[in-house]
Structure formats: C-alpha cells, structure tokens
Amino acid sequence: MIKEEHDLPVMGASQGPAPMATTVINIQTETSVPDHIVWSLFNTVYMNWCCLGFVAFSYSVKSRDRKMVGDLIGARTYAATAKCLNIWALVLGIILTLIFIILFFTGALVFSINIFHTLRQQRGYR
C-alpha cells in the first residue's frame, strides 16, 4: 500500500469512502524579460550619435511599462527593438568616435608638419 493512504486524517477531513477532492493552483513563475534600460541609459549619456540611445531608452521604458502591466509579449517586442537600437548606437558610437580620433590626430600631425616646413622656409629666407 502507498504511504499516503495510511496517513491520519487532517483536522475534520471525512474518513468515509468518498474520494478526496484536490485543488490545483497554477502559479506562474516570474518570466524574466530584459528591458535593457541600463544599456539604453549608457548609450543615451555617452554614445548618443544620431539620437539612437535616446530612442532605445524610450523603448526600454515602454518595455518596462508593458512588463508591469503584465503584457509579456508587448514587453518582449519593445525589448527586442531597444536591444537592436542599442547595438546600432554602440556600433555607430564606437566607429564614429574612432574616426573622430583618427581625423583629429592626423589633422594635428599634418598641421604640425606644415608649421615645421613654414618655420624651416622662413629660416632659409633670412
């Protein structure tokens, strides 16, 4: 015999031949929907080329709002859009920052070479 059949009845439960009614409660586990709000805030503050960081931040806030309401599908949709915009903002930010640094240093190098040649020519004409 199964052990549960030999347990004593619990506080006022019937001991007759009637079957026991069971109640099943489904508790949904908290599904994690990342809203990428920290990444969006970083892109908004530091790498806001073409305002992509700000747009990603707004989609992240929308995703968080949908998650709080209980609309997980809408939250995932907004989160996916925020993630895509964050990736583009990060990639464009890194590329454009590198281009700016390269242009700045090559411009400074060209400028210093021109100054050097100008000073050299002025010494030669004296």
Give a verbal description of the structure.
By secondary structure, this protein is mostly helical. Helix content is 65%, strand content 0%. The chain contains three helices and no strands. Helix 1 (37-46) runs antiparallel to helix 2 (52-69). The longest helix is centred in the last third of the chain and has 54 residues, at 72-125. The radius of gyration is 33 Å and the shape is rod-shaped. The model has no long low-confidence stretch (mean pLDDT 82).
List the helices and strands and how they pair.
Layout (H helix, E strand, L loop, with lengths): L36 H10 L5 H18 L2 H54 L1
Secondary structure tally, helices: 3
Number of strands: 0
Average residue pLDDT: 82
Radius of gyration over all CA atoms, rounded: 33 Å
How far apart are the first and last residues' alpha carbons, in Å?
Answer: 117 Å
Main location: membrane
GO biological process, one term: response to interferon-beta
Keywords: Membrane, Transmembrane, Transmembrane helix
Protein name: Interferon-induced transmembrane protein 1-like
Task: For the structure shown, list the relevant keywords.
transmembrane helix, mainly alpha, rod-shaped, CD225/Dispanin_fam, Interferon-induced transmembrane protein 1-like, 126 residues, 0% strand, 3 helices
